[in-house]
Amino acid sequence: MINQPIIAVDVENAEKAAALLEKLPKEPLFLKVGMELFYQAGPSFVRELKKQGHRIFLDLKLHDIPHTVEKAALQIAALEVDLFTVHAAGGQAMIEAAVRGAEKGTREGAAPPVCLTVTQLTSTTEQMMQKELLIGGSLAEAVRHFSGLAARAGAGGVICSAWEAAAVREEQASGFMAVTPGIRLKGEDAGDQKRVADPALAKEMGSSAIVVGRSITGAADPSAAYHTIEKAWRNA
Ligand SMILES: O=c1ccn([C@@H]2O[C@H](COP(=O)(O)O)[C@@H](O)[C@H]2O)c(=O)[nH]1
C-alpha cells in the first residue's frame, strides 16, 4: 500500500514541472513522470527530482520485443526510480525481460524498481475492448487474465481501474499491487477516463495506490487539492 497519492506530473517541460512543484506541498512526494514530460526533460530531470527527495514512478509503458524491453528496463533502473510500467499485452516473455533488465540495471545493494503491467487502460470500456481490440469476455476477466500473466512473469503489480482492484489483489500473492489511475473527485469531469472512482471508493474497492493527475494539476490550488485527495485516500 502506498499511502500518499501518486501525482501524475503531466506537463510539457521541466520548467512547467518545477512551477507545478512550487504549488505543491514542500515535502517528499510520489511523482509520476510520463511520456510527455520525460520525452522533453529526460533522465537528468528524473535524477533531479530524486535528488529533491521525491519517489518516482516512471510511466513509459514499454511495449516491444523482449530484448529491447530488457535493455530499456536496465536504463530505467539505473535512474533509481521506484516504479515503472510495461504493457501486459507484450506477453509473459516481455514482462520477464523487463523484470530481468530492471534487476541488471540496479546498483548492488539497492532494490530494483517495481515493474507494473498495464492490464487495460482506464480510458477503455468493455465495449471498446471487445469491438476495437477484439478481446472477448468481460473487462474484469481481461484484467484478471493479465494480472495472472504479470504475476507469473515476476512483476510487482498491475495498473487497472479501482473497479478491478479487489479481484486482482485477492487472486495474487500478498504485496502484489493494484495501482489505479482514473481517479476523480465527486462531480469532476472524467475527461477521457472511462473507469473512474473517487479516492475513498478506490480505497474501499482495494486499490494499493492511486494515481491522480488533472484533479491536482488542473486545480486552482494544487496543494489544497492534493491535501483533500490525500485525506480522502488515507482516511477511507
Ligand atoms: O490505464 C492507465 C494507465 C496510466 N494512466 C496515467 O495516469 C494518469 C492519469 O491522469 P488524470 O489526469 O488523473 O486522468 C495519466 O498520466 C495517464 O497517462 C491512466 O490514466 N490510465
Automatic annotation (TrEMBL):
InterPro entries: Aldolase_TIM, OMPdecase, OMPdecase_AS, OMPdecase_bac, OMPdeCOase_dom, RibuloseP-bd_barrel. GO terms for molecular function: orotidine-5'-phosphate decarboxylase activity. The keyword Phosphoprotein does not apply. GO terms for biological process: 'de novo' pyrimidine nucleobase biosynthetic process; 'de novo' UMP biosynthetic process. Transmembrane segments: none annotated. It catalyses: orotidine 5'-phosphate + H(+) = UMP + CO2. Its EC number is 4.1.1.23. It comes from the Bacteria. Substrate binds at residues 10, 32, 59-68, 122, 184, 193, 213-214. Catalyzes the decarboxylation of orotidine 5'-monophosphate (OMP) to uridine 5'-monophosphate (UMP). This is Orotidine 5'-phosphate decarboxylase.
